[in-house]
Amino acid sequence: MRSQVGIIGAGPAGLLLGRLLHLQGIDTIILERRSGDYVLSRIRAGVLDGASVRALDEAQCDARLKRDGLFHDGFDIVAGNDRFHIDLTRHTGKQVIVYGQTEVTRDLMEARAGDGAPTLYEAEVIAMEDIADGPVRITYEQNGQRGEITCDYVAGCDGFHGIAAKQIPDDIRRTFERVYPFGWLGLFADVAPCSPELIYANHENGFALASMRSAKRSRYYIQCPIDADLNEWSDERVWDELAVRLGPEAAERMQRAPSIEKSIAPLRSFVAEPMRHGRLFLAGDAAHIVPPTGAKGLNLASADALVLSRALTALIKDGDPSLADNYSAERLRHVWKVERFSWWMTSMLHRFHDDDAFGARVQLAELDYLSGSEAAQKSLAENYVGLPF
Ligand code: APR
Ligand code: PHB
Known about the structure:
CATH class of the largest domain: Alpha Beta
Strand content: 25-35%
Shape: globular
Bound molecules: adenosine-5-diphosphoribose, P-hydroxybenzoic acid
CATH topology of the largest domain: FAD/NAD(P)-binding domain
Radius of gyration: 21 Å
Distance between the termini: 35 Å
Number of helices: 12
Structural class: alpha+beta
Largest sheet: 8 strands, mixed
């Protein structure tokens, strides 16, 4: 099989890129290791900033998100006994949209099916050859059989555990990483949210977040030890802890119900540079991971896909390599700002080491400053709604 662009991974980065290139008349094949149902069953974050809204608008896949998404003007921060509001719209003139990544993925999968563009599911890429000069040969395994695809360019949209980033030679590739000493225990329940907007809380027991997917479905998280055993966290224990950490006002409104999903995820910051080598371009989690505290993972993947679609379109349709040559440097400038923001939100809102009394006081001072400073709130707001790129 032959294609102008081979895309590895049918997460949001790969599907969005495929759709944007299709609209430019460029053909793509997507190879995805898992089944479509499996991809749709993964639970991920749910806040779209300007990057995702722009990308989905350009992909003409935003009808459902505009209809069913919840448009939020801000969120609350709870710090000890204090609860204050971050007014995104007043500070930036923009909103964010609460709409699950699963729904974004579903919308993009449907568009791709409508385009008649090929996605090979349960097809795992195992090797790539000639990424320096092309044409690139991608070898994959599907149902125990080997197949090969030849393409002019490859987009590695295969996530943190993918194969694409590892094709960049060791003497060129640099990685930067921070692993946090705690995890997030997340819970879904079919109850109304305890507040019309999100609540991020820093409590002495640890971080907590009240989020939602709809007026009838809530998503909650609490910080937990990295090695926490889910069996020791009954629903009741999680609800009790949420009530303590989110503060009395939220506790009073919080409805409890049996969880329909409950899991623990680690937190990590990670960047791999460069994001391009020869004919291979990286996008999304394949190139960078952020901790979920600023809700930026999906939004960074969307920004990558949008910029990469323009670069590949110029290269393939006009023979103009300038955008492609700039892709890595341009994206990394934005990526590092978002890494900084996600690291900062994480640092401000979580309990770190019990014995770091100095760090704990600095954190309280940071929250006190934020609660009283218009300038600090504006800075947070402009990062939260999405920096320009
Ligand atoms: N061959 C084919 N597919 C692969 C391979 C491989 N060797 N390795 C990984 N994949 C697939 C995975 O199965 C997965 O479906 O690549 C896909 C990558 O998708 P995501 O992990 O969703 O990554 P991305 O599209 O970059 O989306 C980023 O997802 O992880 C969240 O927080 C993150 O919200 C962000 C978003
Ligand atoms: C979520 O709803 O899953 C969510 C929202 C905001 C975050 C992280 C996750 O910062």
